[in-house]
């Protein structure tokens, strides 16, 4: 028996030891030392170097194409009930007076024209009436926003997402928050969100813009947890020449383009739409910021 165990220690494969004299058989299974065999499970082996580039090909199925008539479409009646600020600005937001659910508009203007102030003023009015609103701040941090609210106490009740805190996972953060469902979401600004997305995921501007527009389209149609037809107020800068700082696709995919203008002397500010699918009015509404409030008028108001 001692001789058998000495021979066992030398075995490095699965085999059978047979002793004719003793008349018994021992099954031996031992692991081989050294490097693993090349035949090992490839799922357990991690390859070094850059990850392989996979080509995803979209297949087209003609059976999935659907055509509709207007009479075929069905939506909740809540989609046609405007959200009113009960201020003069309602008259240019829609024909029915107020901001319509399920739309996306752009507030475009130069630095200091009042874009963020107008957006927050609208959100504050809606919030005070019980609407669920969100301000996505990609430019201001908590300190800057706190100072803003000290000057304009009305803005303190607006729920705010400070996007700089989630720069490493901006996509997951935005999609998670949006899925909670909101009546109105204001984004300050389009350019900053797209730039952060590009930097985080090392992608192109067109890819970031594609994600941004598709996400808004999803939530406009009620594609969130509670089923809100979310309206988006997107803030965007203009170029030095005063033109819209964005792609033509971004410009055409929005339902409304509202221009926020401020005279060189800074005394007169105005709002007007160059495009609004919800309204047939094209006149200006003037506004001024003083005494902790935004004041609107159909005539010029001086500070």
Descriptive notes:
This protein is of the alpha/beta class and 303 residues long. The chain has two domains: 2-35, no CATH class; 72-297, Rossmann fold (3-Layer(aba) Sandwich). The protein has helices spanning 2-8, 90-93, 115-128, 142-151, 170-178, 190-201, 205-220, 248-252; strands at residues 15-19, 24-28, 104-109, 133-137, 160-162, 184-188, 231-236, 256-262, 269-276, 285-290, 293-297. Strands 5-4-6-7-3-8-9-10-11 form a nine-stranded mixed beta sheet, with helices on both faces. Strands 1-2 form a two-stranded antiparallel sheet. Helix 6 (190-201) crosses helix 7 (205-220). The protein is globular and about 60 Å long. The model is unreliable at 4-31 and 38-47 (pLDDT under 50).
CATH-defined topology of the largest domain: Rossmann fold
What oligomerization state is this entry in? Answer: single chain
The CATH class of the largest domain: Alpha Beta
The helix-and-strand class reads alpha/beta
Distance between the termini: 107 Å
DSSP strand tally: 11
What is the helix tally?
A: 8
With strands numbered from the N-terminus, the spatial order across the biggest sheet is 5-4-6-7-3-8-9-10-11
What is the helical fraction, as a range of percent?
A: 25-40%
Annotated CATH architecture of the largest domain: 3-Layer(aba) Sandwich
What is the CATH superfamily label of the largest domain?
A: P-loop containing nucleotide triphosphate hydrolases
Mean pLDDT: 82
Uncertain segments = 4-31, 38-47
Estimate the strand proportion: 15-25%
Q: What's the alpha carbon Rg, rounded to whole Å?
A: 31 Å
Shape: globular
């Amino acid at each position: 028996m001692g001789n058998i165990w000495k021979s066992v220690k030398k075995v490095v494969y699965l085999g059978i030891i047979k002793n004719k004299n003793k008349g018994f058989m021992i099954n031996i299974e031992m692991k081989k030392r050294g490097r693993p065999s090349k035949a090992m499970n490839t799922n357990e082996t991690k390859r070094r170097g850059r990850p392989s580039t996979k080509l995803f090909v979209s297949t087209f199925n003609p059976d999935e194409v659907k055509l509709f008539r207007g009479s075929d479409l069905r939506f909740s009646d809540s989609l046609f009930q405007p959200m009113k600020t009960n201020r003069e600005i309602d008259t240019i937001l829609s024909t029915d007076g107020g901001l319509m659910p399920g739309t996306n508009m752009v507030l475009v203007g130069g630095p200091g024209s009042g874009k963020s102030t107008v957006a927050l003023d609208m959100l504050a009015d809606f919030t005070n009436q019980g609407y669920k609103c969100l301000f996505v701040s990609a430019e201001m941090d908590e300190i800057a926003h706190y100072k803003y609210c000290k000057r304009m106490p009305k803005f303190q009740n607006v729920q705010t997402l400070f996007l700089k805190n989630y720069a490493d996972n901006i996509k997951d953060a935005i999609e998670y928050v949006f899925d909670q469902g909101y009546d109105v979401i204001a984004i300050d600004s389009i350019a900053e969100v797209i730039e952060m997305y590009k930097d985080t995921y090392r992608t192109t501007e067109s890819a970031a813009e594609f994600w941004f527009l598709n996400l808004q389209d999803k939530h406009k149609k009620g594609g969130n947890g509670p089923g809100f037809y979310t309206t988006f107020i997107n803030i965007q800068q203009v170029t030095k020449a005063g033109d819209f700082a964005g792609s033509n696709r971004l410009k055409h995919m929005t339902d409304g383009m509202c221009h926020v203008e401020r005279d060189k002397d800074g005394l007169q500010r105005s709002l007007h739409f160059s495009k609004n699918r919800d309204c047939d009015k094209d006149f200006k509404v003037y506004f001024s910021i003083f005494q902790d409030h935004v004041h609107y008028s159909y005539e010029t108001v001086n500070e």
